[in-house]
Design goal:
Layout lengths: L1 E4 L5 H13 L5 H7 L7 H6 L1 E7 L2 E11 L2 E9 L8 H15 L4 E5 L5 H6 L3 E7 L7 E8 L6
Parallel strand pairs: 4-5
Antiparallel strand pairs: 1-2, 2-3, 3-4, 5-7, 6-7
């Protein structure tokens, strides 16, 4: 498995991964319909952000999206194909984003986490600093996580 930049022509593929990974947590059709727009990537979004994919033998296993400029950035998305969750792909993508963020001079990453993903982010070293309203579901609050980044060693 290796991590590489996403290509704009992979937008539909990555959107599919995001939707399947979100549905993995048992959300109903109405919930999934409400968050479809927020989970949809297009070529322009891939070009604007730093989007990375984990790939093995030509198959995209998952992806992550990093945005922001020093001193602060955000891990906007991190999704893995549902049948591969728990196999370390999320960890590889997270570590890639952490390294990329440090190299860019970011000192802090925020993550608007799905409640089901909060334990993963805590295990990766993030802390919960509050909550934030969902961009898709009125009245729903999401864990707001923060990852402080040490400066890159020279």
């Amino acid at each position: 498995m290796h991590v590489r930049p996403a290509r704009p022509d992979e937008a539909e593929l990555l959107t599919g991964i995001a939707l399947r990974a979100k549905a993995y947590w048992g959300y109903d059709e109405a919930f999934m319909a409400a968050c479809r727009e927020e989970l949809t990537l297009d070529a322009a979004a891939i070009e604007r952000a730093r989007t990375a994919v984990a790939e093995d033998d030509g198959r995209v296993l998952g992806f992550a999206v990093l945005t922001g400029a020093p001193p602060s950035g955000a891990l906007d998305m991190l999704f893995v194909e549902p049948e591969l969750i728990g196999r370390g792909i999320g960890r590889v993508l997270f570590e890639h984003v952490r390294g990329q963020a440090r190299a860019l001079g970011l000192r802090r990453l925020t993550i608007d986490s799905d409640p089901n993903a909060e334990p993963f982010y805590l295990a990766m070293g993030a802390t919960r600093i509050g909550s934030i309203p969902s961009g898709s579901i009125p009245g729903r609050e999401l864990p707001l996580m923060e990852l402080l980044l040490a400066p890159q060693a020279s």
